[in-house]
Amino acid sequence: MKHGFVRVGCYSPEVTVADCKKNADAIIEAVKFASEKEISLLVFPELCITGYTCSDLFLQKPLLNSAVAALIDIAQRTAPYSVLFAVGLPMVYSSSVFNCAAWIHRGRVLAFIPKTHIPNYGEFYEARHFTSARVLEGRCDLRIDLAPNYTDIPFGTDIIIQDRVRRSFTLATEICEDLWVSQNPSILHAQAGAAVIANLSASNEVVGKKEYRSLLVQSQSGRLACAYLYADAGPGESTTDLIFASHNIIAENGKILTESERFRDGFIYTEIDLDRIWTERRRQTTFTPSNIEYTKVFVDLLVEKPSFTLTRHVSTAPFVPAEDSERESRCEEIMKMQSHALAKRLKHTGCKTAVVGLSGGLDSTLALLVAYDAFSILGLSHDGLYAVTMPCFGTTDRTYNNAVKLARSLKTGFKEINIEKSVLRHFDDIGHDKDNHSVVFENSQARERTQVLMDIANQVNGLVIGTGDLSELALGWATYNGDHMSMYGVNASIPKTLVRYLVQHKAAEFASEGSEREPSISETLTDILDTPVSPELLPPVDGKIAQKTEEIVGPYELHDFFLYYIVRWGYTPGKILYLAEQAFKSDAKNAPYSRKEIISWLKNFYTRFFAQQFKRSCLPDGAKVGTVSLSPRGDWRMPSDASASLWLSELDKLS
User: Fold this and answer.
1) Are 195 and 226 in contact (CB under 8 A)?
2) What is the CATH number of the domain that holds 602?
């Protein structure tokens, strides 16, 4: 365990139906292997000690006794291993047989959880052999007659297993059909405080069931803001009319982390993030705990290990889907959301015109493309969409030409206004030396451009469309009341790493359109994508951009990474550093960033993020398209004068 990550797994042993000793041997070997892999929690399938398909043999006392003997054997022989695991077996309580999960750790049988929903339809006839947990009243304890030392073992569905030290690890159980019904036991478990749900299952295969099973597990983990471990019976159970395939799944907060390929041994493992689960529950105020009292069983399970390395993938670009098809679909969806949001604002205000400051850079290009689509949605003529380019001291030929070409190719309205004279006159008015390239020199240009855009918007009775993105808002990389201001910000919740893919998506779309003008649009967009990110406020050097943003504020891929985990998940600086090292592989020979560099840029992010909140406190309206937004009316409310010392001091200790 490290930084709230716990390694968990599911395994489908090769079951021999009704041979409890052989099945116990397979389970013990699996626990040993799990221990070698540093797995803390392992879930086996339903009735794996006997086999799920024993049918009327479940009423045979020899099988019931053999199952209990195998359970004791498993507990005793796995005592050396610090793996908490659950196995399935039939247990007799009072005069009834229950389909149970038994939790074992360090030689102890900790608890028995009986199945609540007993299917008796289609191919299932469990009610012929098993009794539902519903018949139980209050707390029950079970004594294993074959083992005098195993007494007073909690027996029931209202049981949570919790780590004695790291109380965030809370585990509850349901069995197979319990997941497939409308009133799942796991709903009560989660409300009672369980962050991890284990499901011991024997779900047979029929055509189409795999997809539905995956959806059930994924959605349940999302609805309950939990980790969900689903262990399925394997091919060894296949008998008579039924086929089983070891479809094991581990999900967390609505996302499948890993699942097994069917008809294999089904051994899967990954890490679940307890911090993420509890953060989500705190964030969702509609997730309300219940007053139901559960029996707590405590274990000494989780040990912090400095050398712990994640097997779970950590993306360097958490805002961007990794798979090409998913990324294209996401880009299409986001641009539709942006354009429809702007269309609504235009329609509401009665504006048939809009103004975009077009610099030839990525953000203004995306804003123009979104506005272009919004005009198409409303059936408005694109010549009412004014692309205004305003060259000044830092404008290069490359960005200027791309801005002109893009506007003309799209056949939008176009205005070119050189603002050099206006800015120089302003320098004279305030007594600023034009050769002094300070922040005054830079910001005067940004504010002049905003004034021009606002006044043109008044002339044409239109709206000024903001171009600034989420990453710039986080870093405060915007001129207050300059590019910081607009009448509607379409990029306000789009991080810089995603802006690039959105423009790339539109470039590919235009390239495939087929008309003569589309290829030229695509070529222009491609060149814009290849242009270094810059505000172009300082004079060029040898005709090339002199001011590269990422050399000043840091790499956007790092800052977007920090932004996601700070705002969306509220992680500590130490955990974010750990994740960044995992994602960017800073221990590798040719790593993009060393640990020292990551810490340096993370300090830079915190410093700027806290110092620049005053700019975010008065943002114009803007479309929220993702789970991270810095709008003061949406996801982020922060005092403008809050101190960053708490976060920075933690980083100092890690340096």
Assistant:
1) yes
2) 3.40.50.620
